[in-house]
Design goal:
Radius of gyration: 11 Å
Helix content: 55-70%
Number of strands: 0
Distance between the termini: 31 Å
Largest sheet: none
Shape: globular
Order of helices and strands: HHHHH
């Protein structure tokens, strides 16, 4: 098993989006392009936990390969 995936599977708390992105070695611009939002919007979601709409949280979950329940979304 990939060590970073094991780490995410062992988390017992909500992870902030920025930490997950950085652990994946991804830029905000790359993520925003791949999930279909602006990097400014992703920046806001990273800075304001709990403001991410569920449909965006689902996209991020799939893109990062992290369970949806790891995100703090509305």
């Amino acid at each position: 098993m990939n060590h970073s995936l094991k780490y995410f599977n062992d988390l017992k708390f909500k992870s902030d989006l920025r930490t997950i992105r950085l652990m994946r070695g991804l830029s905000r611009k790359d993520v925003s392009i791949n999930i279909g939002i602006s990097d400014k919007t992703l920046y806001r979601y990273e800075k304001e936990p709990g403001t991410t709409p569920v449909h965006i949280a689902k996209r991020l979950s799939l893109y990062y390969g992290v369970p949806l329940d790891q995100f703090d979304y509305k």
